[in-house]
Amino acid sequence: MRPFLYQRATDPDMAVQALGAAAAANNPLTQATAQPLAGGTTLIDLMKLDVMRPTAIVDINPLAQGWSAIEPDGENLRLGALAKMSDVAVHDEIQRNYPVIANSLKLAASAQLRNMATLGGNVMQRTRCSYFRDVSYENCNKRNPGSGCAAMDGVNRMHAVLGVSDQCIATYPGDFAQALIALDATVEITGRSGSRSMPFAELHKMPGSSPDIETTLQPGELISAFTVSGRWPRSVYLKARDRQSYEFALSSAAIALDVQDGTIREARVALGGVATVPWRAREAEALLKGQRFDDGLAQRAADAAFADARGRRHNSFKIALGKRVVARALQQAVTMEI
Amino acid sequence: MTAAAPEPKANMGQPVPRYDAHSKVTGRATYASDMPLANPAYAFLVTSAIAKGRVDGFDLAEARAVRGVIDIVTHENAPKLKESKLFSNGGYAGTTIQPLKSPDIAHDGQIIAVVIAESYEAAREAANRVKVNYTVAAPSATFDSPGTTTAAAKGQNSQFKEDPKVGDFAKAFAAAEIQLTAAYDTPTQHHNPMELFTTSCAWIGDDLVIYEPSQYVHGLKNGVAEQLGIDADKVRVVNPYVGGGFGSRGSMTPRTAIIAGIARRLNRPIKLVATRDQGFTITTYRAETRHEIKLGASRDGKLVALRHEGAEVSSRPDAYCVGGTKTTTRLYACPNVDSLVSIVRADRNTPGFMRSPPEVPYLFALESAMDELAVKLDMDPVELRRINDTTNEPIGGKPYTSRSLMACFDEAAKAFGWSQRSSQPKSMAEGDWLIGYGCAATCYPTQMGPAAARVRLQRDGRTRVEIAGHEIGTGAYTVIAQTAAERLGVPLEKVAVFIGDSDLPPAPVAGGSNSTASTCSAVMMVCDQIRQRLFKAVMPDSLTDKAKETVGISQAPTTQAAKSNRPLDIEKAFDALGVSVVEEYGEWKPEGAPLDSFKAMHSGHVRLVGGHQMQDKIAYAFGAEFVEVRVNRFTHEIRCPRLVGAFAAGRIMNPRTARSQLMGGLIWGMSSALLEATEIDERNARYVNDNLADYLVPVNADVPGVEVILLSEQDDHINPAGAKGLGELANVGTNAAICNALYHATGQRIRKLPVRLENIEV
Ligand SMILES: Cc1cc2nc3c(=O)[nH]c(=O)nc-3n(C[C@H](O)[C@H](O)[C@H](O)COP(=O)(O)OP(=O)(O)OC[C@H]3O[C@@H](n4cnc5c(N)ncnc54)[C@H](O)[C@@H]3O)c2cc1C
Ligand code: SF4
User: Fold this and answer.
1) What ipTM was estimated for this complex?
2) Chain A residues touching B121 at Cβ < 8 A
3) Cα–Cα distance between A74 and A230 in angstroms, integer?
4) Active-site annotation of B, residues
5) Domain total in chain B
6) What is the pTM of this model?
7) Does B729 lie in the same domain as B587?
């Protein structure tokens, strides 16, 4: 860890000013010299590993009063960026009307981490690629642009099969973001020139030729909230992993369905653990929409979701696994009692 | 009694609570790096980012500029240290690769510099700013990597004297009605004890005190003295508590003498707390192994031929191996046995002891093969073990001192509900989950070594026991206190135990599960010396013969007479002696210990006897383990909801601490089968998942049901305490039991550990 300046932001303006002032415009956000601090479970970890080296930390926890809402108003949902994972996971109405959100949070990390971690920090968490997290490896395009990718032909069991490029195959590791993607959430952003919102799906960027640029947030911008329109009681989050708890997904599926009289009117399929960004499987959704559900349909949707998948030495299994996870999650969503 | 404190059966002590429970739970227990030091400097290691090659130079400007940096030590200015031989070759060291001696790099993560600073934070920051220029050579990572060399273990490893064999394997195998040949693999594993690999070194004049988690304070003391070229009496190693060892702290690592040398030069105490990832490369580990098993049997299940060939990875300079064929060739009755162990040299650090070093990989192979044989024979795997059970080991024909293997199988099978198992694979399921039942034998050699103790008894019953044993979480304080209390007839609360300090009378390494047997036997003997002195003081001369019998200065277990005589009038005895404190010191050695035992004991050399190396007998603890696995039909996730083990290990000193050890062992075994593996990037022979987020160990949710059954067993042929070590007993059989259960669940035989969901093909 390197010395840094610690500041507490007592209002959003102060936060974005402090962040913006320290951030060099041409730096990607994740390498910005000023970083917001929420729960710190990603940021402090990566600072100790010397992967992130901010010279200024802006503690945004004092903004919690205004930014930690959990507001399901019966039709729409608003979640503040500083709401704790644990609080959202056990919220009655979230469990009832947005089970995919509740479960994506409940099945993530550990109780201690969920008590600390915030929703905003959660969607901004960074890849678990071992080569990225260990600075003694030179070759990592994400950490060290242009240096190559050690994972490509290295130990890559945990890596992505969807959305990969020849520059980077790092998995987006989080769970909650898949629920947001599936529910077509909107993200609210506060910056120096005021607030803006955009579809959550536009927040993360695929690695392409610049894996160091992970999101479309600009330096100085903060996530203030997420909103979801409608209620999604028929939704599930299925997560396959090596351990029963406290472990990232090898493959996960966030499914939300609207089924009326046996016909799927609306289907949302998002994938985790297998892709470089929170992944929306639109091809699968298109196949499902308007159809009556059966196991064959689930299988075809699962195949469609992974049609473009590319496996490497240790992670090819994720393609078959991912398909089974999608098919099973669809079955669960269709048969769940609501 | 509760599950945690099982009701003692015959030949078991009381399940008294841990001696150190309170201080551990309240955080008052002082681990090595909690020890206060006067004005310490802090060290942070810089380790190599390559596995083979050399350091061409450092750029230290940025690092030196960090405020608070005192010195940066590299091979160019490191203290000169003498070499130490490998532990398993009569020395103290876990590796003979000595860092900072030259610019050469022999393995990933080798120490190449040490930053010393006024604070931990400054040292770490400066270490992060050290720049290194390397010349990189192509390393050989593991089996099948180009550039490795392979040779038989015999002849290059002084501990591995013989490849056990008997009869004519080739002929018998060729003629066998049923034949089985199968190959098995086990991965690299790291101990990862909770307490990091720390060391604090403080000089007071010419005397050095080392605070370091060690499983062998006398070994470390002598080893560091040897490396520094000073008299061993000048060195003291202190660690009243050790946060887990599992073998990783049995031998000396290079870090200690380096830090001690720098501290001497600086004339200031230095504290090093190596990071978790550095712990993967600056200490030993369990090397990956490969096995081929050949079993020949008659149609009724009797083994007629057995061959076990094992290969293990070691470093370039050191021929370390665990050679578990000594156990697998002796476990079952079989007239024709052959074996071979070889060592494959790669560009790695030297591997070392890790909980049940030989038995874990080698029994995984044999006990998997036994299950495969049972399938071929269409026989209950428990019955196959029964048919091949034996009272004498087949290689030398020596009798087992006691062997409750089948009793363990029967007890565990009953508790587990083995009779509910439908024998066909893939025949049991519930909801999304396929269910499999599996079992395997477990065993561990009974070992003990020479140990000394000092015991002091006061008139008011207060007792002080001093022995340089080690509390690595096993319950050493507790069983030593119990032994003294029982032997002297004083209340347990009055006994104070002092261990973990090389200024105390020497005890063996806390390894090979010898500690309880060795330390308790020594303490018993010295308590008897005290009792004899007291008896003699109050008894007429004519009765001293009786006194001798009563208090037993010999090593025989307490006689009936001794027991009945216990309520000796202590007050009267002290009056007669004319003192208020009696103190005795004694040195105990097990039957068959080598002549130089006591001398070796004082110079920090281990002289363990037992297992198959006893004169005319062979001593092992046994157990049977049953597991239920569940495999998700859709995700192929593998879970293990139930682990049931029954164990017999001679006298159980304390059923509470014993259960805890065995429970931990079962969980460790499950972990070893399903989770743990250190991943090696073969291109550069470097470890990749060197942290506890990526090196998976079970969480509570992974072990919902663990049941430990302690069998009553009496063995009068091993040591005065009558105890067999059990710390390394339970994690041996689990690997095979789980793979056997997976076969039952899925019909798929998996011969490579760990088993991950991608290995399942249902
Ligand atoms: C051992 C371990 C296991 C884990 N397992 C899982 C798992 O199974 N599933 C899972 O989903 N996650 C898992 N996590 C990740 C964990 O959920 C995240 O670390 C956590 O959610 C991050 O939230 P935080 O508030 O602590 O973020 P911080 O660490 O404070 O911040 C993370 C990043 O986001 C930035 N940031 C924070 N808040 C904002 C904001 N409002 N606007 C813009 N930028 C912001 C920070 O500057 C920083 O760069 C695990 C983490 C650990 C350490
Ligand atoms: S996968 Fe991405 S993060 Fe990992 S080493 Fe390659 S470039 Fe770096």
Assistant:
1) 0.96
2) 1
3) 8
4) 728
5) 3
6) 0.96
7) no
Let me know whether B658 and B555 are in one domain: no
Q: What is the mean pLDDT of residues B446-462?
A: 96
Å from B121 to nearest chain A CA?
7
- The pLDDT-based confidence of A21 (bands split at 50, 70, 90) is confident
Average pLDDT, chain A: 96
pLDDT, tens digit (0-9, with 9 covering 90-100), for A136-146: 999 999 999 99
Which residue in chain B has the smallest CA separation from A238? B635
Q: Is residue A172 part of a domain?
A: no
Give the pLDDT score at B28. 95
Going from the Cα of A120 to the center of ligand 1, the distance in angstroms, rounded, reads 8
Residue A181, C-beta contacts closer than 8 angstroms, at least 6 positions apart = A200, A201, A254, A270, A278, A279, A280
Residues B576, B557, single domain; the answer is yes
Q: Both B558 and B706 in a single domain?
A: no
- The range of the structural domain enclosing residue B492 comes to 449-606
Mean pLDDT of B64-73: 98
Q: Read off the DSSP letter of residue B102.
A: S
- The Cα–Cα gap between B715 and B618 comes to 12
Number of helices (H) and strands (E) in chain B: give both, helices first. Answer: 19, 28
Q: What is the CATH number of the domain that holds B10?
A: 3.30.365.10
A59 alpha carbon, closest ligand: 1
Mean pLDDT of chain B: 95
**Residue B557, pLDDT score:** 36
Optimal mutation site among A44, A238, A246, interface B, most CBs of chain B within 10 A: A246
Res A223 pLDDT > 50: yes
Inter-chain touch A155–B698, beta carbons under 8 Å: no
B515-538 vs B544-551: helix crossing angle, rounded to 10: 160
Residue among B130, B120, B128, B121 at smallest CA distance from B42: B120
Say how far apart CA B273 and CA B37 lie, in whole Å: 14
For residues B620 and B296, what is the distance between their CA atoms, to the nearest angstrom? 25
Residue B128 lies in a domain: yes
pLDDT in tens, B392-438: 999 999 999 999 999 999 999 999 999 999 999 999 999 999 999 99
In a domain, B382, yes or no: no
Domain that holds residue A300: 235-335
B641 touches chain A (CB under 8 A): no
